[in-house]
Amino acid sequence: MKTVEAKKKDEEDIGLSCFNKDWILQLNKQEQTKHFVCLICRQIVNNPLEINCPEHENLDESLIVGENCLKNFLNDNQNSCPIQPHDGCQYSKNRPLQRQINDLIVMCPRQYAQDSKAANPRPQQEETISEKINCDFKGKIKDLQDHLNTSCPFLLSHCWFKPFGCNHTCLKHQLKDHLIANLQYHFDLVTTTFGSLQQTIRLRQEEIKRLQLENKQLKLQIQVNGNKSQDNALSFLNDNSNPNQHLQSQIQGEMEKYRQQLQLKDDEIKKIQRSYQQD
């Protein structure tokens, strides 16, 4: 039986690799598809490219390959042409052919895979096959991806408790069994998550209180220092006929420094409060 990762890989490859010829022939005659065969993998071409190198211009047949097949072939063979060895392989998209392939009627590839396993079961697969489900999709290739992503009975479902840490994935009809069999595990996940959230909330509340206290102390310090500076300034002015501009500048600088510190504390408190509200 395929793993979840293998099934996901198959689904990703549906839009890239050439199509399995045996699967296509389940609902199509061979005469319909004989011009759709990839010259590299010998399957039904997907995203067809036509090779049109000058070296092959005398050939009568269309040189059709799948885009993914050609890409892999060129990477593995130092960009040498797959028809005959030479550099500078030239090719172009064949959109009319792609439209014909897109209109082919096919069955669900997941259903085909299950039917193939049922026809040739391994001993360890017999129990799994007896529990099989069925998908009755029969439609055009161009509609296949939407079916696989939305309505296929073989579509994999995530556990309801994924946000709490359960990464289990299974077929939709198997999800109920998973939920019933893992009640305690899911309860523990939820409990752990809420405990962690409560701890986070408590820490942030303590941080807000600490900052508010520091802010209050800073305001008092500014008030005390401000009063002291004013007294010193008045005393100096009374003792001197000419005001000392340098002293006034120092006093103003000290007051501005405290104001900036106070503003930073206020900003920090507001930031923590916003973060707390978002959580």
From TrEMBL:
Gene3D superfamilies: Zinc/RING finger domain, C3HC4 (zinc finger)
Transmembrane portions of the chain: none
One term of GO molecular function: zinc ion binding
Family matches, as Pfam families: zf-TRAF (PF02176)
Claim: Zinc-finger is one of the keywords in the record: yes
Coiled coil: 201-228
InterPro entries from the UniProt entry: Znf_RING/FYVE/PHD, Znf_TRAF
Domain TRAF-type: 142-178
Keyword Repeat: no
Keywords: Coiled coil, Metal-binding, Zinc, Zinc-finger
Superkingdom classification of source: Eukaryota
Name of the molecule in the record: TRAF-type domain-containing protein
Originating organism: Reticulomyxa filosa
